[in-house]
Amino acid sequence: MSEASSDDVVVAHNLVKKYGSVRALDGASFRVRRGQITGLIGPNGAGKTTALKAVLGLTPFDGDLRVMGKNPFRERARVMEDVSFVADVAVLPKWIRVHQLVQYCESVHPNFSREKAEAHLARTQIKPKARVSTLSKGMVAQLHLALVMSIDAKLLVLDEPTLGLDILFRKAFYETLLNDYYDNDRSIIITTHQVEEIEPILTDLLFIQRGRIVLDSSMDQIKDRFCEVMVNADRVAEARALSPMSERQIMGKTIMLFKDIARDRLETLGETHNPGVSDLFVATMQEDAP
User: Fold this and answer.
1) How far is CA 58 from CA 61, 124, 169, in A?
2) Helix 137-149 crosses helix 98-108 at what angle (to 10 degrees)?
3) Do the bridges between strand 83-86 and strand 204-209 make them parallel or antiparallel, or are there none, so unpaired?
4) Cα 263 from chain centroid?
5) Predicted local confidence at residue 63, as pLDDT
6) Whole-model pTM over 0.70
7) Quick one: 206 and 265 in the same domain?
8) I want to staple 149 with a disulfide (CB 3.0 to 4.6 A). Which of 7, 9, 41, 181 is the partner?
């Protein structure tokens, strides 16, 4: 990896984390820069949550990791002044009332704004005196996001933040995040299995498999490097000779995904498209399979 710059929020080099004989991280290297919205995508057990735990200072590791220039495990208190985290919304205590939670956040976090939190909550149906236990899961997600958006943080980490929510709440969650929180000075890391829903907001993409980063690219680079072709029936053999990453059949049509082949060459084979992240993910996992 190149030298760290002032725009680097997270720089990880050769991260290794073992649980007994299992390597949850096996030499993972990546970086997140200021203003990026990065999707960290991988199958179950690939190392996503372990990587986030390392970034959040929740687990020791081998290798080198810097978050805002600091070692997150050794300097966690300082790092977390500039980092916010949203996991499954069930982490909020059920017994507490909304206004008490706002007061608590104000008392423990130096960069928390009570005024911002109350303004965010005023745009919801959440009542200040309501207990968390009485709120729907969607409303708890709104509450959690309102609290997080009220912290003046440089990095927001989202680990399956909309798990279990219906599509209306998931859509509202990401719209609120973009409209009321994100700007070019803040960075966001998202892990989710609902890849299609976050694809439009991503600037960068990381694929992780067996503890290693197998794809690290901006969304613009993906459009340049990868191309999907609906291959004409009389060109299938010619297309296969170019060693596609994947091939599948849909309603009698042959769809192939290619990497690092000139688009004008591929256009002679059939109709070309930019691949979706989910199709690229499946092809990359198959290509990297042992």
Assistant:
1) 10, 32, 29
2) 30
3) unpaired
4) 29
5) 96
6) yes
7) no
8) 181
